[in-house]
Design goal:
Strand content: under 5%
CATH class: Mainly Alpha
Structural class: mainly alpha
Number of domains: 1
Low-confidence stretches: 1-13
CATH architecture: Up-down Bundle
């Protein structure tokens, strides 16, 4: 990551000044609860689906369902975020999301068909699609402009901390509860119901008011504003494109249930630890960035970090007894392979946080306020759909290279992760060539 000792004095003397702002503290606290609950839910859904179906494709369909919801809702979500009170949108989305969690609990308890789980995930993803652009744009009204990069860094760090705690707690609770209940996932869904409501009441206490304005009619031209702005700003387009393809190709998280159960033999608590490895790396990276001057060569730092993300993904896929052990004849205990896999995911999380901070800060500061909702919505569409479509792609490739071709599911999962990491490295080279603006992108402020 880039740093410039000559610019040490550009750092504010108090790295924690943003925490003196009451509304920012409330916003951050609400997100802390919401994200912990959501990450626990992600672990529970993956565990329950794989337990019930023993299929990588079933895990991949989760991403496909959520991607469809995002595509269907992105344009109206962006328009509404620019024309309706953003706080009201956030509160409404949280209520819908909590209802979806309650539905998952009832489905799990009654062992309802898997299709019902996908229906609730669709509803939850639709709520998040409205929540994201409103929440991103809402943050700009809570802190002064000069504090915004620091607020983004702390916000990202809080998100990643929640993403560490959520999977670890969720995995540990499932491992504990499955010895006492036939429906351990149902309890996790109820916890997420409670955390979403906690976030609702915390956000409701925020005093900041969005400036009232005359609502713009929802027309095709209005809906397309966010896309037009993004495609006109080559730097923003390049940043979003790089992150989108890196997430699409390099994400291994949808296959973690396969790695935890059948490759690394780590069980539900091991799955929770693996889910927490990426955000743990991101937390430490965020703490580092929060105490350093703004990145002086942000573009180059971004390209290098995404390349490292791809390489670490490749090593994560290879370093286990089924791949590296068999090819090179290296026999190691399962716990050694597990902790190496954990370390590679940790590295992925650390370098990925750089991309998050650079992209989010750039998109918000380079976009006029009257377009922030729609541009944030486009940003969420690119990144969110690549996340979910990447999950489907990983599950589909694992199924195709595994059971569909007569191979073990472990073979398919390893092939999917390794080829995805290779693709990520190739994308970095392509983006660096076609978007020289990124290579020249300087100070992040």
């Amino acid at each position: 990551m880039s740093r410039d000792a000559d610019n040490e004095n550009s750092l504010p003397t108090d790295n924690y000044a943003v925490f003196r702002l009451r509304d920012f503290r409330l916003y951050l606290t609400g997100r802390l609860f919401a994200v912990i609950g959501a990450q626990m839910l992600t672990v529970a859904v993956g565990w329950e689906l794989y337990e019930r179906t023993n299929s990588a494709l079933a895990l991949g369909i989760v991403g496909l369902v959520e991607m469809i919801a995002m595509i269907a809702c992105t344009l109206p979500a962006g328009h509404i975020a620019d024309n309706v009170n953003r706080k009201r949108i956030i509160l409404t989305a949280l209520v819908v999301s909590s209802c979806a969690s309650l539905g998952l609990a009832l489905i799990s308890w009654n062992h309802a068909p898997v299709a019902c789980i996908y229906a609730c995930l669709f509803t939850s993803a639709a709520a998040r699609t409205f929540l994201w652009p409103a929440s991103s744009a809402f943050l700009t009204s809570l802190v002064p402009r000069e504090m915004f990069p620091r607020a983004v860094t702390w916000n990202s760090g809080m998100f990643q901390f929640s993403s560490v705690a959520g999977p670890a707690i969720g995995g540990a609770l499932i491992a504990l509860l499955k010895n006492h209940s036939a429906h351990p996932a149902a309890f996790i869904y109820l916890i997420n119901f409670g955390t979403a409501l906690t976030c609702f009441f915390t956000v409701k206490m925020i005093r900041a008011q969005q400036a009232e304005k005359v609502g713009e009619p929802m027309t095709l031209k209005s809906l397309a504003t966010g896309f037009n702005f993004v495609f006109a700003q080559r730097l923003i387009l390049g940043l979003i494109t790089l992150d989108m393809f890196a997430v699409f190709l390099g994400g291994a998280t949808s296959l973690l249930p396969v790695f935890a159960k059948d490759i690394l033999h780590a069980g539900a608590d091991g799955l929770g630890l693996l889910q927490a490895a990426l955000p743990l790396g991101s937390v430490l990276c965020a703490l580092y960035l929060a105490h350093r001057p703004p990145l002086q060569k942000a573009g180059r730092a971004l390209l290098w970090c995404v390349a490292v993300f791809g390489l670490a993904t490749i090593l994560f896929g290879l370093c286990n007894q089924y791949a590296f052990g068999q090819w090179f004849g290296l026999s190691l205990p399962n716990h050694v392979w597990f902790w190496f896999a954990f370390a590679m995911l940790f590295v992925c999380g650390a370098v990925d946080n750089v991309s998050v901070v650079i992209r989010h800060t750039s998109v918000q500061l380079l976009t006029p306020d009257d377009k922030r909702g729609r541009v944030s919505s486009v940003n969420s569409l690119f990144i969110g759909t690549s996340n979910e479509l990447g999950g489907f792609e990983s599950g589909f490739v694992a199924h195709l290279a595994g059971p569909a071709m007569g191979n073990a599911i472990t073979t398919g999962a390893i092939f999917s992760v390794v080829t995805g990491g290779i693709g990520t490295v190739l994308v970095v080279g392509a983006v660096a060539y076609f978007w020289p603006e990124i290579r020249r992108y300087g100070k992040l402020a």
